[in-house]
Write a structure and sequence with these properties.
The complex is a heterotrimer of chains A (491), B (469) and C (433).
Chain A (H helix, E strand, L loop, with lengths): L22 H8 L3 H7 L3 H10 L2 H10 L6 E2 H7 L8 H7 L1 H5 L7 E3 L2 E4 L3 H12 L22 H24 L10 H9 L3 E2 L15 E2 L1 H8 L2 H16 L3 H15 L7 E2 H4 L4 H10 L2 E2 L7 E4 L1 H4 L4 H7 L2 H5 L2 E3 L4 E4 L4 H10 L1 E5 L4 E4 L2 H9 L4 H10 L15 H14 L8 E4 L3 H13 L3 E5 L4 E4 L4 H18 L1
Antiparallel strand pairs in A: 1-3, 2-3, 4-5, 6-8, 7-8, 9-10, 10-12, 11-12, 13-15, 14-15
Helix pairs in contact in A: 1-12, 2-13, 3-8, 9-19, 20-22, 21-22, 23-24
Chain B lengths: L8 H14 L7 H11 L20 H4 L9 H18 L10 E8 L13 H19 L4 E8 L2 E9 L2 H8 L13 H12 L7 E8 L13 H10 L2 E7 L5 H9 L4 E3 L3 H10 L23 H12 L5 E5 L2 E2 L6 E2 L6 E2 L3 E2 L6 E2 L4 E2 L6 E2 L2 H5 L2 H4 L5 E3 L2 H6 L38 E3 L5 E2 L1 H11 L8
Parallel strand pairs in B: 1-2, 1-4, 4-5, 5-6, 7-14
Antiparallel strand pairs in B: 2-3, 8-11, 9-10, 11-12, 13-14, 15-16, 16-17
Helix pairs in contact in B: 5-6, 7-8
Chain C lengths: L19 E8 L2 H8 L11 H5 L7 H18 L4 E8 L2 E6 L18 H26 L12 H15 L4 H4 L22 E8 L10 H4 L1 H7 L4 H10 L2 H13 L4 E5 L11 H9 L4 E3 L6 H9 L18 E2 L2 E2 L6 E2 L1 E5 L5 E2 L17 H11 L27 H4 L20
Parallel strand pairs in C: 1-2, 1-4, 4-5, 5-6
Antiparallel strand pairs in C: 2-3, 8-9, 10-11
InterPro entries (chain A): Tfb2_C, TFIIH_p52/Tfb2
Protein name (chain A): RNA polymerase II transcription factor B subunit 2
Subcellular location (chain A): Nucleus
Chain lengths: 491, 469, 433
């Protein structure tokens, strides 16, 4: 029944949702220097979150070794991983690569005939303090000193607030692209600026891209791709755009980044004191309020509540399954006849679905539509790829869809999406120069010559047409003229 | 001789016709008959008395499950659970004596009829699938037992897997479907003969059994002086209990065989029922067969066996004490010589009496003859000896009375019980066996448990958390 | 062990692991801990100065709980979604310490700025739970129930509770199987795909009580209680005695095997307090593919906990190595006198185990032939325990091997200081008799 398919979701690495939600963060961290990490690892919250972001194998090796006084030896790693003692150093290095990239371990060195990795003392100390609670950096947030009878917002209120703020931005992006009449409040200017800098939106009338009219921006293909990502990826992307755009200065950048991690380790429903928790990053904290990461009872208050957007930052998939919106996120049922049933009433999700689904029926809590060629292709023209659609569909699959045998999405549909994608790529536009010949000899000689110089794009021997790369035009015409003369003189 | 080589399928058809004639419904087809019933008799007689099973409306499995008024399936689920509970209540008084060392041949009919599609996708696939889980479950509950498999096809029988105690081996054979392609007709006689031959050397203190899964409605047995009745007599003599499961219908000879050998005969109504019937044969049978004649279990009583045999014939003791040794398992370190093969091997077990190394247990020590058994093997069967008493359903009043005695949480999994005060009185229609309060109380330790734990403790764990304090 | 391939296959390493639930059963029997707090001096190991240097370190319950909490925090830290469940097993009773029932008052009101809140909740709740349990013990003593202290810790009860808990969060046994379509899952070995991520579970038993605790001693106290209840029926009374001990433990082991839950065992009493390991806990660990390790009394517990017990089951065996396990004695307990046996007499009908030949089976009432008794007795007289050779395998890498029988140890001896006081490696042999 399962036919050999080129796009089987298991065998095709590109379609698998292998990219982690923190991809943007990882890319950022991978490019930082030792000193940057030294600064970061002063915060216990960062140590904890960085540890958790490692792949399981290096993560457990680090934990295995956490309480030892000695540097980590390669032989230890080899024996723990049941590797042959002859395994090359490079291979072992490769396994520990993520830890090396995060500067948790210093590069390998030789000491008394033993290869070993000295560990980063700041990280080790930070992690130990995180586990024992003996740190001093207040990185898990200083609670706000409030009166006991003061009214605090419930968790539901905080979630609703965060959702509204962030979805407002997303809705604004969608509506700019589709012209659907949402009643969307325009986000604040700083947010729009960031959207522009990140390339998620542009002003089409502004050719240079230097001083756009922030009120007339439309979404780009990058923006469409952004919409299809899952929530955590979007959040980290936004934060990283913010970090690179606003805090180019590296010293402050580390502090702001460590604040992101601290926010991720905070507790939903608890209030914290802004000035005591982040004395050096207050302005950044204020900016985050615009995206819905934190809630403040009054704009200039020192008290703030992290919303679920913030507290779920570092929690991987775990928080998603815990928070109540996990079930709301899984609303799609996709049938093999391309019909889609979406149990949602969320305007934003419906608008996103509308990007590639022909929506036929709308009920208060249910949308029925169909994946068809026209809509999918129009989505692809906007820059959305088949893989993105597939990963969107699978990450939003209804729990009911897990009850049928894997794969989650039926191969028929996955294959069809890939076919549509390829169809779009069937025509490739290239500049060319066409030469028309009347003499067969001249045609053949020019053909071999241009082939030899990798200038040939296409030859049509029947009609004696040659198509060559434009930049080689001069050289080839020279050759043709010369050859022509030779041929003529030959007569 | 009810079945011989002249047997032809037509005969069965005639028999069926006869049967219908007895019912005074001579019509050529069921359609005519139906018309007669509805038109001629009118409303006078009602529908049911004249109806045959095949005329009844097809019962859809999903109709059985009823949603309650809130559209939830909870009550349906609960009643399913209650069914299991009642079944267990019946089991509670089963005899204590059970044969724990079992030898069983599974005789599998691989005739053409196995390709019938009344079970989806085919009988063959369904049986094969069930057999795989069956074998695992069987060895789980009978770790000292052994299973062999015999197949019957093309009027021949063949030992597919010889008697052995390794489920993996059996599973690997069962997973190879190409070797098991059904064909031809089965021969019950040949199958039984082969099973009997395969068990003739085994001591009768262990329980000898066969499980026949019979799909055909006939058996094609060899012509000659020996008939299936002779074979049956031999089976009875050698006390081989024969359970027969028919997929098609009740067959006289099959029923006769199982009745005379103290086995069970069952006809599967549908897939669920088939599974139930198969799984019924997993728990060790109660020893009701006449006590065995010989003693001497394996060669455990090395010295005593010879002297014993003569005197014991008359008295026929049901069992005897066996000397067993509990070994020490060596870690997978260096290689040492084993006593059983004389080869260098890693790991292994040390005989507790003579200290020689054995490759595998259970076995008889090659050096001192002690029966070496790993104690967990024995312990698997202990739950028969120390069953957990059934828990009592707690009514609302009971909970009200003793509200202070027990906490608000299940003693097993510490889940919270629903608040008694919020439970409505009107849930009387709940089937008996389901507690309206969600509490079940152990009679011994007087602790309360939730429904999930009740099932888990009785079905799998076999130890009451409260009583073990 | 086949030689591993020269180049590690990076792609075979798991990219993610399922969330992991760790159920810890901690033995807080007061008598055991008083023994641990004042251990006898360790025998010196003159040929291994590295080990000898580490002195016997007394271990008190508060000290140990501190270490345990760090370990539990590390478990929580190693993955989002990891959870911890803690049971306390005291003399004759077991109790859930963490998580607290949902209606309990929330822990400390103020989060501490330097502690991750989940860690803080876990730690304070365990501390509180332990104090409550200790107070209950105190009450029992004050009420003159001195006898209760002589009961062994209720390991079996705690194990059954832990298994019930696992069954609740991961129901894959018959109870739920009855509700799904029987034909849908004819092959139980196939992974059921009911959800995206099913948590994996494991149990860690921390034993502090010397001796083969779970099995034998429970018998001597019970008869008075059970006999009264079960109207003097000898057969059932003996059932009651056994239930808390050997049989119960074995039943737990089989249930755990079925649910594929490894039972890890950490045995604290060092050899100087108790020469014989808790063989039944060792059997449990062996049968469920858990890790068994006995502390050598020389400190280093924090390191050992992290190194041995932290990797979740999905990473054990592949790619991580598990510590080499010692020889396991598959001994059993007799039903009549609750002795631990090397060789026993087994009823051929019901498989009850007895330590001496008897004319009638206690359990199933089968009469055994009288004539065979003298023969059996004579057989029994031969039985004497044999000395078991030292059977510990050399560890795969001789980095810190401490095997006493390791001849070429001279070279390694100087390098084998691992972590100051952490002392003896995991390869240290455990005496079997």
């Amino acid at each position: 029944m399962v036919q050999p398919s080129f796009s089987h979701p298991r065998s095709d690495p590109s379609s698998s949702t292998s990219s982690s939600p923190t991809a943007a963060l990882d890319a950022f961290l991978d490019n930082q220097h030792q000193s940057y990490f030294e600064e970061l690892y002063k915060s216990e919250a960062v140590c904890l979150c960085v540890l958790r972001s490692l792949p399981p194998v290096p993560r457990h090796i680090i934990l295995h070794h956490l309480w030892s006084h000695q540097p980590l030896r390669t032989t230890e790693v080899k024996s723990f991983l049941q590797l042959d003692i002859q395994t090359s150093i490079q291979d072992v290095d490769e396994i520990m690569r993520p830890a090396l990239n995060r500067k948790i371990l210093h590069p390998m060195m030789l000491k008394k005939n033993k290869m070993l990795w000295p560990s980063n003392d700041a990280f080790k100390k930070g992690l130990r303090n995180a586990l024992t609670g003996l740190g001093t950096s207040n990185s898990f947030g200083v609670p706000f000193d409030r009166d006991d009878d003061a009214e605090i917002p419930s968790q539901e209120v905080l979630v609703a607030y965060g959702e509204e703020a962030f979805e407002g931005i997303l809705k604004y992006m969608v509506s700019s692209g589709l012209g659907i009449g949402f009643s969307v409040a325009r986000p604040q200017a700083e947010v729009l600026e960031l959207l522009h800098i990140s390339g998620l939106m542009i002003d089409p009338t502004d050719a240079t891209g230097q001083n756009p009219n922030l009120n007339k921006m439309t979404i780009t293909s990058k923006g469409f791709q952004f919409l299809l990502e899952d929530r955590q990826t979007q959040l980290w992307e936004v934060l990283m755009y913010y970090l690179t755009a606003k805090e180019a200065n590296s010293e402050r950048s580390a502090e702001v980044l460590s604040m992101f991690f601290s926010l991720g380790c905070m507790q939903l429903g608890q209030d914290y004191s802004a000035s005591k928790s982040f004395p050096h990053a207050l302005s950044a904290l204020n900016d985050l309020a615009q995206y819905g990461f934190i809630y403040r009872p009054s704009p200039d208050s020192n008290q703030f509540f992290p919303t679920h957007l913030a507290t779920a930052l570092c929690s991987g998939d775990a928080a998603a399954t815990k928070s109540q919106d996990a079930d709301e996120k899984r609303f799609l049922i996709l049938e093999t006849n391309y019909k889609i049933y979406a149990y949602t009433s969320n305007e934003l999700e419906i608008a996103i679905l509308n990007l590639f689904v022909d929506i036929r029926i709308r009920y208060p809590n249910l949308v029925v539509g169909k994946l068809d060629r026209k809509n999918v292709k129009s989505a692809m023209e906007k820059g959305i790829s088949a893989n993105q659609i597939i990963s969107y569909l699978s990450s939003h699959a209804h729990p009911q869809m897990y009850n049928s045998p894997p794969p989650l999405l039926h191969p028929t549909i996955v294959d069809q999406l890939h076919l549509w994608d390829r169809e779009r790529n069937r025509l490739k536009m290239e500049d060319t120069v066409m030469l028309e010949f009347f003499s067969k000899e001249l045609f053949e000689d020019t053909e071999t010559e241009s082939k030899a110089n990798a200038a040939l794009q296409l030859s049509v021997p029947n009609q004696k047409f040659l198509f060559i790369e434009p930049q080689t035009k001069a050289a080839i015409t020279d050759f043709v003229k010369e050859r022509q003369n030779q041929l003529r003189s030959g007569f | 001789m009810p079945l011989d080589l002249n047997y032809a399928p037509g005969a069965a058809d005639e028999a069926d016709d006869d049967f219908i004639d007895d019912d005074d419904l001579p019509g050529p087809s069921s359609r005519g008959k139906k018309g007669g019933a509805s038109g001629g008799k009118g409303g006078g007689k009602g529908k049911d008395p004249g109806r045959h099973a095949w005329e009844a409306e097809y019962k859809k499995s999903w109709d059985i499950v009823q949603e309650d008024e809130k559209g939830s399936l909870e009550s349906a689920v609960e009643s399913l659970l209650a069914r299991g509970r009642r079944k267990r209540a019946l089991m509670a008084d089963t005899p204590l004596r059970r044969s724990i060392i079992r030898h069983m041949f599974i005789i599998l009919d691989l005739s053409d009829s196995m390709m019938d599609k009344d079970y989806r996708p085919t009988r063959f696939e369904v049986i094969l699938g069930y057999l795989r889980t069956y074998v695992v479950e069987w060895f789980d509950q009978n770790p000292l037992g052994q299973i062999g498999i015999i197949i019957m096809r093309d009027r021949l029988s063949e030992v597919l897997v010889p008697m052995g105690g390794n489920p993996q081996e059996i599973l690997s054979v069962l997973s190879d479907k190409r070797k098991l392609e059904p064909s031809g007709e089965p021969s019950l006689q040949n199958g039984l003969m082969m099973a009997k031959g395969g068990m003739s050397h085994l001591p009768t203190t262990s329980s000898l059994e066969t499980l026949i899964i019979f799909s055909s409605i006939s058996t094609a047995d060899p012509d000659g002086p020996v008939t299936i009745h002779n074979v049956l007599q031999e089976m009875v003599d050698s006390k081989i209990r024969t359970n027969i499961l028919s997929l098609s219908g009740e067959i006289k000879i099959c029923k006769q065989i199982s009745e005379r050998t103290n086995g069970k005969f069952g006809v599967a109504l549908d897939q669920d029922h088939l599974k139930d019937l198969m799984w019924d044969t997993i728990p060790p049978p109660a020893t009701t067969i006449a006590p065995p004649i010989t003693v001497g279990v394996r060669n455990a009583l090395a010295g005593a066996g010879a002297g014993q045999r003569g005197g014991a014939v008359g008295k026929a003791p049901a069992g005897d004490l066996m000397v067993m040794g509990f070994p020490i398992q060596l870690p997978l370190g260096g290689e040492t010589l084993c006593a059983c093969h004389g080869l260098l091997k890693k790991g292994g077990y040390l005989c507790p009496r003579c200290g020689s190394k054995l490759c595998d247990v259970p076995t008889d020590c090659e050096v001192c003859g002690l029966m070496v058994v790993s104690s967990p093997h024995l312990a698997r069967s202990f739950w028969f000896l120390f069953p957990v008493a059934n828990y009592r359903v707690l009514a609302i009043e009971d909970v009200m009375d003793s509200i202070n005695g027990n906490g608000d949480t299940c003693f097993g999994c510490d889940v919270e019980f629903p608040d008694v005060s919020t439970i409505e009185e009107g849930v009387a229609q709940v089937e008996d066996g389901v507690s309206p309060t969600g509490r079940y109380r152990c009679a011994k330790c007087r602790n309360d448990f939730c429904a999930d734990c009740d099932l888990y403790i009785h079905d799998t764990l076999h130890t009451c958390p409260g009583c073990s304090q | 062990m086949a030689p591993p391939p020269p180049a590690p296959d990076l792609s075979s390493y798991p990219k993610t692991t399922p969330p992991s639930v760790l159920l810890v059963i901690i033995d807080i029997h007061p008598l055991s801990w008083s023994l641990l707090a004042s251990p006898p001096p360790l025998p010196s190991v003159p040929d291994q100065p590295a080990i000898d240097k580490a002195h016997a370190s007394p271990m008190t319950l508060p000290d140990f709980v501190t270490i345990l909490m760090v370990f539990l925090n590390a478990h929580l830290a190693s993955r989002w979604g990891n959870e911890v469940v803690v049971y306390g097993a005291s003399a004759g009773r077991a109790k859930l310490l963490y998580p607290p029932p949902s209606n309990a008052v929330a822990g400390p009101s103020k989060p501490r700025p330097n502690t991750y809140l989940p860690f803080q909740l876990l730690d304070s709740r365990i501390e509180q739970g332990l104090k409550e349990m200790a107070a209950e013990e105190q009450d029992r003593l004050a009420n003159g129930d001195v006898n209760s202290l002589n009961q062994p810790p209720a390991m079996v009860s705690a194990l059954t509770k832990a298994l019930c808990f696992i069954n609740r969060i991961n129901p894959h046994t018959s109870a739920s199987a009855a509700l799904v379509d029987p034909t849908a899952a004819p092959d139980p070995s196939a992974p059921s795909s009911t959800g995206p991520d099913r948590p994996e579970t494991r149990i860690l038993v921390i034993n502090a009580t010397p001796g083969e605790n779970v099995s034998t001693s429970s018998s001597s106290l019970d008869p008075s209680q059970t006999n009264g209840e079960v109207d003097g029926n000898v057969q059932k009374a003996s059932g009651g005695q056994m239930r808390g001990g050997y049989v119960g433990l074995m039943n737990c082991v089989f249930a755990a095997q079925k649910a594929k839950v490894p039972i890890d065992v950490l045995s604290l009493p060092p050899p100087s307090i108790d020469a014989s390991p808790p063989i039944f806990l060792q059997q449990a660990a062996h049968l469920t593919e858990g890790i068994y390790w006995q502390w050598n009394g020389r400190g280093g517990l924090l390191q050992y906990l992290h190194a041995l017990y932290l990797p979740p089951p999905s990473l054990r065996h592949h790619p991580f190595a598990v510590p080499p396990q010692d020889a396991v004695g598959f001994r059993a307990v007799c039903f009549c006198h609750h002795k631990t046996l090397d060789v026993g007499f087994v009823c051929s009908v019901c498989l009850s185990i007895f330590c001496e030949p008897r004319p009638v089976c206690l359990m199933c009432k089968t009469r055994f032939p009288i004539k065979s008794i003298p023969t059996l007795k004579s057989l029994a007289s031969y039985i004497e325990p044999i000395p078991v050779p030292d059977t510990v395998p050399p560890p795969p890498i001789p980095k810190n091997s401490k095997s006493q029988n390791n001849e070429n140890n001279k070279k390694d001896r100087n390098k084998s200081v691992v972590n100051g006081n952490s002392g003896g490696g995991r390869g240290e042999p455990i005496e079997i008799d």
